[in-house]
Amino acid sequence: MSDNKLTLASFPSDYSLGRTLSKVMSLNLSSNELRSIPGFVGQLMELRVLDVSSNRVEHLDAMLLRLRKLQVVSLHSNPPLPADVAEAAEAGVGELWLYLQAWQGGGTGHSVV
């Protein structure tokens, strides 16, 4: 699904795509026009690699915490994320999870990631 100028409006809003793609292990959404990661991604429990590089991603959603098998998240060539998010993402998925868990629980004081 890379290099198609996709936006969030390009995906069904009822998460049906997540059910259809439930066994996907690698998802390449790079080089589109996404401002956030589509909600259906949170249903891809087998996902190990997520590439959302070269988009317009401005924030990350705590729904990524559901993806226990996720090992790689590629975020390069997006608008700058807040420094603490970017540092966590560069340190690896484990650090990103720790950041998102703290944010979801209110531990970091951030309102939007």
User: What is the CA–CA distance across the termini?
Assistant: 25 Å
Order of helices and strands: HEEEHH
Choose one word for the global shape: globular
Helix content: 10-25%
CATH architectural arrangement of the domain at 8-81: Alpha-Beta Horseshoe
CATH superfamily of the domain at 8-81: Ribonuclease Inhibitor
CATH top level class name of the domain at 8-81: Alpha Beta
CATH topology of the domain at 8-81: Leucine-rich repeat, LRR (right-handed beta-alpha superhelix)
Mean residue pLDDT = 75
Sheet with the most strands? 3 strands, parallel
Task: Tell me what the structure shows.
This protein is 23% helix and 8% strand. The chain has 113 residues and is of the alpha/beta class. The protein has a domain at 8-81: Leucine-rich repeat, LRR (right-handed beta-alpha superhelix) (Alpha-Beta Horseshoe). The chain has a 3-stranded parallel beta sheet with strand order 1-2-3, with no helix packed on it. α2 (83-91) packs across α3 (93-104). The longest helix has 12 residues, at 93-104. It is globular.
Outline:
The chain has a domain at 8-81: Ribonuclease Inhibitor (Leucine-rich repeat, LRR (right-handed beta-alpha superhelix)), CATH 3.80.10.10.
Task: List the topology elements.
Elements: H1 16-20, E1 26-28, E2 49-51, E3 72-74, H2 83-91, H3 93-104
Parallel strand pairs: 1-2, 2-3
Helix pairs in contact: 2-3
